[in-house]
Amino acid sequence: MNYLLNNALVAEFGVIQGKVEYDDVTTPAALMSKGITDLNSQTISMTYSVVSVDYSLIDGSYDQLKIGNWHDLENPISDD
Prior knowledge:
Elements: H1 7-13, H2 28-40
């Protein structure tokens, strides 16, 4: 295997490639151990709680919200 994957994060966000250099690694086993440690430390750092309103119930010009679909959100207080 030439790479490591976190399948849960890949399923959520796709593959995001990067490079890490370890100057103190001298064996393949140590490299694998450090890589797995780094990979397991990757997490999703932000969560949001939202309440949605399905405007299609009162105005047919809006698409109906469907459970399980992804919808873009605008956060006016975020720097993103």
